[in-house]
Amino acid sequence: MFRKVLIANRGEIAVRIARTLRERGIRSIGVFSDADRTARHVRVTDESHPIGPAPSAESYLRVDRVIDAAKKSGAEAIHPGYGFLSERVELAEACAETGIVFIGPPVVAIRSMGSKTEARAIVKAAGVPVVPGAEAGELPEVQASADRVGYPVMLKAAGGGGGKGMRLVTKAADLAAAFERARSESKKAFGDDRVYVEKALERPRHVEIQVLADGAGKVVHLFERDCSIQRRHQKVIEETPSPAAGESLVAEMGEVAVRAARSVSYVGAGTIEFLLEPSGKFYFLEMNTRLQVEHPVTELVTGLDLVWEQIRVAAGQPLGYGQDDVRRSGAAIECRIYAEDPTKGYLPSPGTITTLVSPGGPGIREDSGVESGSVVTPYYDPLLSKLCAWGPDRAAALARMRRALHEYVLAGVRTNLSLHRRVLAEPEFVAGRYDTGYLDRHRELCSPDISVDGAPIEAVALAAAIVAARRDLEARPAPAQEKPSAWRREGRERAMRRRP
What we know:
Elements: E1 4-7, H1 11-23, E2 27-32, H2 40-44, E3 47-50, H3 63-73, E4 77-79, H4 89-98, E5 101-102, H5 107-114, H6 116-125, E6 133-134, H7 139-149, E7 153-157, E8 167-169, H8 175-190, E9 195-199, E10 205-213, E11 219-231, E12 234-240, H9 247-262, E13 268-276, E14 282-288, H10 295-302, H11 306-314, E15 331-338, E16 340-341, E17 347-348, E18 351-352, E19 355-357, E20 364-368, E21 375-376, E22 383-391, H12 394-407, E23 409-411, H13 417-425, H14 427-430, H15 438-441, E24 451-452, E25 455-456, H16 457-475, H17 486-498
Parallel strand pairs: 1-2, 1-4, 2-3, 4-5
Antiparallel strand pairs: 6-9, 7-8, 7-9, 10-11, 10-13, 11-12, 12-15, 13-14, 15-22, 16-17, 18-21, 19-23, 20-22, 24-25
């Protein structure tokens, strides 16, 4: 097993990985940009190394600087987390060249699944259903493909995912402008301006299957996660089990996901994402060759530590269990807490967190990268933390999440906490009747709140009461020591007289 692992990331995922390493007695090595010099992940790792200026292109995306930090620290392996370099072939190749273990899949799997068009072709050949569509091309080819599959269509970046470079086009007249915007965004996000076309499904759900694979060819799935609550094609709330998928459908999707993973000789943790129609038909969307943001909900229901499973497999250990050995219990839900303003089109809200009171209690887990006094910079993704709730069933998990959201106090920057509170109380969501267009249809959930300094007024009042109580306790004089009894005084005096 490794003695030192470098975490090539920041924020909550860096803190999350460091915790598993510490539990297992492995020394954690952090990296930081100039903007993150005092960040929480720097303090929770055993040692940290600077890797450049604030812009990610000059720090967290610099393969050479990450490798240099690994060499200087003596790290034997690198865990990329998610985002940044996690799905970049260049990092995996650099690790192989320098003898450092990359905690992730083989280069060929990253390369194959990194190209969305190539991934479609590979899994289709393996018998995995894909959404009707066409390969990437120039505007005339894309127009012809859109006419062939029929509107509405979705334009997608061939070189990446995560909602970047995606545009919904409902009529031919809008295609050219959408194509140019998708191309520009794709080039900026992934350095690749290729765009391809898929048929836009009506009111689909976004359901994904978590897979794990070892170097001996064993692959298992860890059930599904429903990630349909999204804004701008990016996930906001995830849960498992999915309210729309019964056991037989999940088993079928799981078998298909395992088949897709085997088609690229996958090793490690990965996720096969599907679009699920109301009819029960599902189609391959993409494969994420890394740890997912929403992995905690799977951990809560299966009892597995996915970070540790990644590390074990990367160290050459077998999974040690088969599909029949994997069980899940209860239900779990995750709310992504972002520093953004839902009332202004989810505009990021940088600043300093002045007050932070995290929730707790039965069934609650928070993976956070911030604390009171943390600076939220404009340079990186505005994700602050992931609030998760587990319960013996969905109703219990939702009840715990509602309670936790009302306990959560965060001031100094705008957040989407109020949006989460409203969604968790909205009848359609509570009934499990939602799809990827849910937030677009329920724009009223983003209406302004009465707030102070970015936090709801009731939350500010609670925080003020907590701070006042703490100050009151700190201001109280220490209790006077009890006067010693006569026999204690006599004993001390005799002891003093005996000293030379």
